[in-house]
Amino acid sequence: MLQRCTPTDFREIFEIINDAASVYKGVIPSDCWHEPYMSEQDLKTQIDEGVDFWSYTNDGVIMGVMGIQDRAEVTLIRHAYVRTVVRNKGIGGKLLAYLVNLTSKPVLIGTWAAATWAIEFYQKHDFRLLPEEEKNRLLLRYWSIPLRQVETSVVLANAEWKNETV
Predict the structure, then answer these.
(1) What are residue 108's DSSP bridge partners?
(2) What is the CATH number of the domain that holds 89?
(3) Which runs of consecutive H residues, i.e. helices, occur in the chain?
(4) By residue range, what is the domain housing residue 128?
(5) Is the peptide bond before 36 cis (omega within 30 degrees of 0)?
(6) Segment 44-102, tens digit of pLDDT
């Protein structure tokens, strides 16, 4: 079942993000890796800044989470994670399709350039990689991330995105 997360889901969201993000260890630049990958304070900040988390649950247990964030003329998909034990079962695709249908705006997704599996997942769901110059401009405009992360990330966009949009 897909549903909007509530404040009582905070701990489970935190655990899922850090469980699933363990796949980044040794893949993303070592200076970008933290233990835990996302701290409780960073998660709280993301929520306070407007990331609205949604979950896929099975028998009352959250199996995956994905955030959506309104950023004026675009919508961002943020922090898409599925529990390690239930990966590759369609959970991420269901969350992504649902969240994309919540908006009529162009949808942008940022991820690590080295996370080829994530890029392939989004491409399979009709997102396309944007050119380097456009990626840099968008990351600086819509995300609040360190410059090092901008350098080592990519941005993907759905069909509604047109270069002239912004």
Answers:
(1) 76, 157
(2) 3.40.630.30
(3) 10-20, 40-48, 91-100, 116-124, 132-142, 147-151
(4) 2-165
(5) yes
(6) 999 999 999 999 999 999 999 999 999 999 999 999 999 999 999 999 999 999 999 99
Beta-bridge partner residues of 129 = 156
Edge-to-edge strands of the sheet including 52-58? 2-4, 52-58, 61-71, 74-82, 107-112, 153-157, 128-129
Question: Into how many domains does the chain fold?
Answer: 1
CA–CA distance, 133 with 124 (Å, rounded to integer) = 23
First to last CA, the chain: 35
Model confidence, pTM: 0.95
What tokens does 56 get?
């896929």
* Residue whose entry in the numeric block shows the structure tokens 């080829």: 116
